[in-house]
Amino acid sequence: MRDVARLANVSVATVSFVINGSKPVTPATKARVEDAMRQLDYRRNALGRALASKRTRIIALLYPALQRRLTETAVKFFTSATQRARELGYNLVLWPISNEAEQIEELISSGFIDGVLLMEVQLDDPRVECLQSSTMPFALIGRVRNPESVPYVDVDFENAVVDAVSYLEGLGHRSFCLVDSADVEYALTGYGPLVRTRETFAAEMQRRGHRSAHLSCENSPISGQAVVERLLAAAPDTTAIILMNDNASFGLINGLLKQDLEVPADVSVLLIGASPAVAETTDPRLTVMSLPSTELGRMGVETLIDQLEERGAPMQHALVKCSFEEGQSTGPARNREKFMAQEVAD
């Protein structure tokens, strides 16, 4: 550090201020110090910095890996959050623990992290209650039942469902089915995205006066294929399926084809809450309401770091819309009732 101070023609204390960010330094002086550090190949001592500032500049992204498999969209979010944290001078680590409050308490007491980002939020999430009773800064990627008192950014699942129904309705569809994930329901009781999607779908069907069905299946292609038989038994006149289950999409398309139903000529399929990459794995390519994973990762980190830096920003409550990408799996509705009557007559 003395060598850096000598080369930059500043005091050792000034070098310390630049390294630790403990006091403001003019841009010109900071540039000289950083240039001297590069010339001397000086490496910041992260442990020394943490001891001096009483901060590790590490934030933890908590993901309940025991209950929820790490999906492609979650990885995309994690990558975006990591990059944004680095830009703001922090390191972000993925902390794959369960959704139990006891594990949160252990993490908080370790002194290893400065703040927490919480993913896969339940409406009545025990982890949130634990964080609220602590002094640990935190932010949610998701919403609890009454979210006004906690900082969050989340996907606007409600409007995604409304937009999906409106789009399909515009194509003439009047008989809908929502197919979602049974695995998530079993693993995370009251999982926010699932509950909000179901409630909004039911409300829209009632408001618009459309026929509807709701089915759940496990997160696998074989379960997606099997759910088609259940659908045809429960609601054979369905012409539009809104699918909220990435891993079942391939099987569902195959299941429809095995029942001699063409997509989209007989049944339209719209994938919601996924990514374009998932939509491209089927033939035909799925129409999708894709998750804003990159934007959510950036916003979540900024929301947390605003608290850590005590910037005085108002508590963040933000909903981010899904983006619509039309594929080849949606088209004008066919009169299935008339078509089935003709088949019987023939």
In short:
It contains 15 helices and twelve strands. With 346 residues, the protein is α/β, with parallel strands linked by helices.
Annotated CATH architecture of the largest domain: 3-Layer(aba) Sandwich
Helix and strand composition category: alpha/beta
Q: Compute the number of strand runs.
A: 12
CATH topology title of the largest domain: Rossmann fold
What coarse outline follows from CA principal-axis ratios? elongated
How far apart the termini lie comes to: 90 Å
Give the % helix: 40-55%
Number of helices: 15
Portion of residues in beta strands equals 15-25%
Strand count, sense and barrel status of the largest sheet are: 6 strands, parallel
Q: CATH H level of the largest domain: which superfamily?
A: Response regulator
CATH class of the largest domain: Alpha Beta
Low-confidence stretches: 337-346
Strands across the major sheet, in which order?
2-1-3-4-5-11
Measured on Cα atoms, how large is the radius of gyration? 25 Å
Give, in order, the helices and strands: HHHHEHEHEHEEHEHHEHEHEHEHEEH
Name the average pLDDT.
Answer: 87
Number of domains: 3
Provide the fold topology.
Elements: H1 2-8, H2 12-20, H3 27-39, H4 46-53, E1 58-63, H5 72-87, E2 91-96, H6 101-109, E3 115-118, H7 126-132, E4 138-141, E5 152-155, H8 157-170, E6 175-181, H9 182-187, H10 192-208, E7 211-217, H11 221-234, E8 240-243, H12 249-258, E9 268-274, H13 276-279, E10 287-290, H14 293-308, E11 317-320, E12 323-325, H15 336-345
Parallel strand pairs: 1-2, 1-3, 3-4, 4-5, 5-11, 6-7, 6-8, 8-9, 9-10
Antiparallel strand pairs: 10-12
Helix pairs in contact: 1-3, 5-14, 6-7, 8-10, 11-12
